[in-house]
Amino acid sequence: MSTPETAVASTAPEGLPDRIPHWIGGEYADASDGHTFDVADPVSNIPYTRAARGNAADIDRAVAAAAAAFPAWAAVGNRARATILNRVADAIETRHDRLAAFETFDTGLPITQARGQARRAAENFRYFADVIVTLGEEAFRQGSEQISYVVRQPVGVAGLITPWNTPFMLESWKLAPAIAAGCTVVLKPAEWTPLSASLWPEIFTEAGVPAGVVNIVHGIGEEAGQALVEHPNAPLISFTGSTETGSHIIRSSASNLKITSMELGGKSPVVVFADADLDAALDSVVFGVFSLNGERCTAGSRVLVERPVYEEFAARLAQRAAATVVGPPADPATEVGALVHPEHYARVLNYVETGRKEATLLAGGCAPAHLPEGNYLQPTVFADVPRDARIFQEEIFGPVVAVAPFDSEQEAVELANATRYGLAAYIWTSNLTRGHRIAHAVQSGMVWINSHNVRDLRTPFGGVKASGIGREGGARSIDFYTESKIVHLALGPVHTPAFGKDGQK
Predict the structure, then answer these.
(1) Radius of gyration over alpha carbons of the chain, in Å?
(2) 366: annotated active-site residue
(3) Choice among 171, 223, 263, 358 that is catalytic
(4) Exactly one of 297, 358, 395, 472 is catalytic; which is it?
(5) pTM above 0.85, yes or no
(6) Residues 476-493: tens digit of each pLDDT
(7) How many whole angstroms separate alpha carbon 224 and alpha carbon 34?
């Protein structure tokens, strides 16, 4: 007879660490007080390892190691840094299968989607290796009198705080531009999903990243994360996570006037007009809100459909949700796996119960019958959702979608903008003039017309309103991790008004 522990063992990938230590100054390190915390997988919810529980002393050690490594790393030429970044990408790719297995086991992400995250992580390092080599600097000539030129200089020690959804890829999204720009870093991974981050030390060592350039401190956000945010010698904080936590970080970092980039929550609208390619729009909606288990900030979780096709579209969406394969994350046939953690699972289920009172449940709303154990939820569709409903207004971060009709272009824009969030938006119409018009009217940092979330790494990523502050991506990421210094140089004699000259004796 199997036990929960044997069930974990039967699904666990090979090579799981018996503990996950910090990585400080190029060496593994336990927490200074020896404390650890349990790490569980989302299928069994049984702890499979323990991670070092970082505290202020650990953050202080990591910041000191990063500060000590900074002068030498900042002095490395862009081409040499790019070479190292490409070696990091190579090391990621050689661990592709192991990384995907770790990510799937730790997060509940379906294995087919975890493999895609591993590829994207490697691409992030290759991309920023190219950016740092090709990125130029500005110069301004003032006639024949003066020339002024801009020099980018790395800020120093960057504090990186990353989320639990697609953790390895999102860590790479911050690590790559930070070290490409010449910063050294202290990374604080999410406590719910630290497993894939345990691969970074061997990757960086194999790639030849000097000791102290990257430091990793595990721990609880309110402890290790808070200490990093408040540390006076880490002048920059890049954070991805909830709006509430982002607001807290900004308040906590204000006394040190830190540079911050906040990629926060979303409640992104999908606007579907009657003249759209409805088959393509349906594919995009289903993938956009149910892939990655719905645990994605850019999920199109509010679907606004023009009245003439509303009933048909909502019914077809419900049929697709009911047919979506929910199963064990490691099964290649699985399309939606297990939600990341019991606390988050309970939060999502609470929204589902709220939705039952606010709208019409068309599909899902409970765990699949064949998966009574684990954090599983059948993709859930609510229709006729009023704009003041909680499931319309608040970020659920799970496989739950709210559908509502609209009668005019003006109403579509009003509904799209009727939340405090503004990260992404998706517009489906065959009238491209209208598509452009809606794209400019919707309050969001990113808009896709007749497309799902296809990213170009050269473009800015970020939101407006409660969805964040700042932009990262392409050259904007390098701008964030560097300070711009302007140098003015005279090209000839300087004619300066001679105050007080006539009064000299």
Answers:
(1) 25
(2) no
(3) 263
(4) 297
(5) yes
(6) 999 999 999 999 999 988
(7) 14
